[in-house]
TrEMBL record:
Keywords (A to Z) from UniProt: Leucine-rich repeat, Repeat
This protein's name: Tubulin-specific chaperone cofactor E-like protein
Domain of life of the source: Eukaryota
InterPro entries, per database record: LRR_dom_sf, SDS22/Internalin_LRR
Amino acid sequence: MPTCSFSEALEIRYVEDIEVNPIEPCEIFLVGSFPGRSSPSGRLVLPRTLTLNCCGINRAGTLRKIEELCHDVEELDLAQNELCDLNEIDNVLRYMPNLSFLNLSHNDMKEAMPEQLTRMENLRSLVLNHTHVPWETVCSFLDAMPNIQELHLSLNDYTCIDLPSNKQYTKLKQLFVCGNPISSWNDVILIGKIFPNLESLIMADTRIASVPEPSTWEDVFLHLQTVNFNNVLLNDWKDIDRLNHFCKLEDIRLQGIPVLDELNELERRQHLIAYLPSVIRLNGSAILQKEREDAERAFIRHFLSKNERPKRFYELEAIHGKLDPLVDVDLSPKKTAQVYVHFCEEQSTLTVNLQQSVQELKATLSDKFGLRPTKMR
């Protein structure tokens, strides 16, 4: 793909055939989210949301044009371009004081060196998925964005969280680190220390295999409400039980984990509900009171015939009392029946297949009593 500058891509995408003299100032205003056009007065109208992905952008370009056109831009999508120099990225962003959302996903930033970026007070959401951006450069972004609330760092091949433990970013509420081979719970603890007001932690498709004793980490997650551990490697119900020590946890996703493998779909949901009493939403679905009661009772009955019972069994038994196993009632339709057949002075008991046709029954009776089927009524 041929490369171009941000200012060139902006003109190609939004200005199109409108002639704008880069030397003489022009009157500009931005509204809505639609392609650039010229108003009757000749003013250039641009959207507040700019989408310039897959354009081959590798540099800022004409800074004066960026300053003229982008002052009121609020959302900027630069995914799947060729941006790798933090100075060039900063040259684009410095003229967007109202920017609240920035997407740089799928730009190869693994060689991007940390720089002091222009401070962006209004930036709330930063997406750096599949950029392989170094942690030092992540720090440069965070330091320049004091009010950031949402950070996406998925698919960056991180094996650990390599942020300085002596720094805190108190405004961050949501962190996404899916698809990284992070395996140690110590990295989860570090996340809690660096982002003390975190409310949502999305760590699906990581390699977390166990949850240690809560005394080592429960005091660093005082605001966490939502967790996604889909497809992690948890293989012990004790690990699930320890998740209750996220003191405000109410929404969790736990699909595709090894500890569920031996259960059917209904049992998986029932066991998770039984183990997580404070959770009100599981795998995207609300847990109603009746479902919780049914799940907890099913959990008790599941372990009635087991020699080893988890601590949670006795906790639930104290709530619901001692339960009897459910009676195994077969409600499937009968396939055969015993019938008494009288013919003249003869009578007999036959086992009849209820799924056969009348013609087949007549054939059976014909063989038994020597009466032709056509004579039967």
